Amino acid sequence: MASSLSSFPSLNHSPLHPRFLQALNAPCSVLRLKHASFPNPRIRISPLKSQRARTKTVVLSAQSGFLKVLRTAWNIGKDGIEAGTNLVPVSVPRPVARISVTTAALAVSLFVIKSFLSTAFFVLGTMGFAYFLFIALNKDEAPKQRGQDNSSGSKPMDDPLEEAKKIMDKYK
What PANTHER family does the annotation carry (predicted)? Predict the structure, then answer.
């Protein structure tokens, strides 16, 4: 059996085999790092971080999502201003073109935001006014509570069972 394995050098992993010793002495060998002893006692291998430390990292990265959105919006805005500046003729100095494109972009974006907010407040105001009119015009039809005086002339119901019996006797 030993003679059949000797023909396959990759299957012979004895510590005395020259290929094993060569792999152990390779500069980037995992085996060399695993069995290495550090001559300097200051050098230590730190253990893996605990689950709690990773959780804090996840929470911190989730909180900084808003900053990432702001940074992305800022970069998109800068790219848009650069693209708009490239549309301005070359005869206009670049700083003047950049300032004019930025002013135009701000004017357009403020107009869009103003239009959206104006529409939203108009719709909310109209709905509020309609609700106010509905309440104001239907005050008389509000449901009456039990103890209040009815303007229709009937007595308030003292006992619903007694009222039902009166109605049943009436139609006998």
Answer: EXPRESSED PROTEIN
Q: Judge contact between 80 and 105, C-beta under 8 A.
A: yes
Q: What is the pLDDT of residues 19-29, one digit of tens each?
A: 655 655 555 55
What is the three-state SS of 85-105? Answer: HHHCCCCCCHHHHHHHHHHHH
How far from the centroid of its chain's Cα atoms is residue 98's Cα? 33
Q: How far apart are CA 8 and CA 42, in angstroms?
A: 43
Q: Name the domain count of the chain.
A: 1
| Residue 159 located in a structural domain | no
Higher pLDDT pick, 6 / 135: 135
Tallying the residues shown for the chain, one arrives at 172
| Distance of alpha carbon 44 from alpha carbon 61, whole angstroms | 29
- Spatial distance between the Cα atoms of 67 and 39, rounded to a whole number of angstroms: 46
